[in-house]
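input
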Amino acid sequence: MTKIVTHDSRFHADDVFAVATLLLAIGEAEVIRSRDPEVQATADYLVDTGMQYDPAKHLFDHHQPSGAGVRENGIPYASFGLVWKEYGEKIAGGEKEAEIIERKLVQAIDANDNGVVTAVDKFEGVRQYRLVDFFNSYVESRDPEHLYKAFMNAVVIAKDLLAREISIAKKLINDESKVLSYFNESRDKRLVVMTEDLAGWGDVLRQKLEVLYTIHPRPDGKWSLSAIQDDAYVSRKPLPESWAGLKDEELQKVTGVSDALFCHRALFMAAAKSKEGAIALAEIALNS
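output
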C-alpha cells in the first residue's frame, strides 16, 4: 500500500491538511508519523519533514534553510501549500476552483505555520478563533498512539472541510455568470433583482460601481434587500435610518410596505415576504 509519512509528536493545520490533500488526490494510503530517517526512507510521499522539497520525488517539506519558495504576495509556502500546488487543481476540478481555495484556506494556514501575521487583533485579550488553534495537538496525552489517533481524526475533518470548500468553489464559479446576467438585464443598474439564491453575488456586484442594492430570495421563501458593501458593514448607500432595527408592523407603518418583515439596525439588509415587497422597499431606499 502507498505510504504517506509525516513527522510525529505535536501536529498543526499544515501537516493535517497536507496529508488530507494527498489522501483526496491518491486515494487509500497508509499514514505513518515518524522522524526516524529509516522509516522516512520507505515513504512514497514525505510531508512536512525530511528537509527537502521535490514534487517529482513526492518530497514536500519547507523547513530547510532555504525554505521552499515564497508567493508573490510574500507568504512563504508550508507543506500544505506545496502539496496543494501540486494536486489542488486535480482534486478541486479546475484551476479557478483551486485558486479560490488557495486564497481562502491554504495561504492562511501556510502563513501561520511560517510565523507570518495576516491579521492584527484589535481588542486586548481577544483574538479570532483560528483553524490552526483547533488542529494544534493540545491533547490529554503525549502517548504516540493517542497522538496518532488525534492526528487521523483531524485529517478526517480536514478532508471533509476540503470537500465542502471544493463544492463551494464550484458553485461560486457557476453562479458568477448568472449574477452578471442579472446585472446586464437590469434596466436600473442601481438595483439588481435576482430570482435565485446565488453564491458570491457580493464579490461580483462590488465590482460594478453603479450597483447600490440587490434583491434575492432566501431559503425560507422570503426575500432580502441587501445594500452593496465595499467593506464589512460599510454600505454604498445604507437603507433609511428610520428603518433601523424595526420589524413587522413597526417597519410596515414606517415604509407603507404591507409585507415588510425586518431591517437590520446596521442598515445593510431588510426583508419582506414577497419579491414585490422587497422591490417596494428598494424603491423607497433609492429615493431617500
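quick obs: The chain has a mean pLDDT of 93.
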